[in-house]
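DM from R.C. (forwarded with permission)

"hey, sorry to bug you on a friday — could you get me a structure for this? deadline for the figure draft is monday and I only need the backbone to look sensible"
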Amino acid sequence: MTIKAIIFDFGEVLNRSADRQEVAARRAEVAARLGVPIEDLWAYLFDRESSEKWMTGRLTWDEFWTEVLAPHNITDPAEIRDFARWVLPKTKSLNPDMVQLLGELKDRFALAVLSNATWREEQMGKMLHNDLELPDDTFDVIVTSSSVGVVKPHLEIFRQVLARLGVKAEEAIFTDDMPQFTAAAASLGIHSHTFTSPAEFRQYLTTFGIMTGDPISD
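My reply, with the result:
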């Protein structure tokens, strides 16, 4: 089956976060304070009803974190903000290797962003194109959980992005840094890759004959 579309998560895939070692250390502090094993922190925070409400716009950022941290007697607003910032540091730039890859793929495939995000789709588009300075026509489709009212790994959000792209599951590739999300996409027949680095994703694309493995030079 010919690949027609490539779908990207945003966080930790397209963006370049703060220093990974520093982020990992901060998250370890959060896990210790909450009494949660570090490997279970993400599930503890985000595999719950309150996070789904937040990611679909039914809770505010402050309401979500207050609900999560209140059982641990963390109620001071400043301390709550620190916890949130340590877990989810602000995104300041795109990963330049991913920007280059997007440029190489743009004229050959339909491209999409699929993100669990409190941004509405138009807000994410503005952020990508205005704030982060991607060309306006980079993505054909942007789907965010707050706009469609459902979050990854629910299968409906994957069905929606496929429908908007106008492709079958087997005609699409999806990459995300969360294994449970790539597993959900794969269950629908989408070719799925758990993202670790631009180089590894580029190598994954070579298995479809899409890339040669080396960036295209100017």
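R.C.: lifesaver. The first helix runs from residue 20 to 34.
me: no worries. The longest strand covers residues 110-115.
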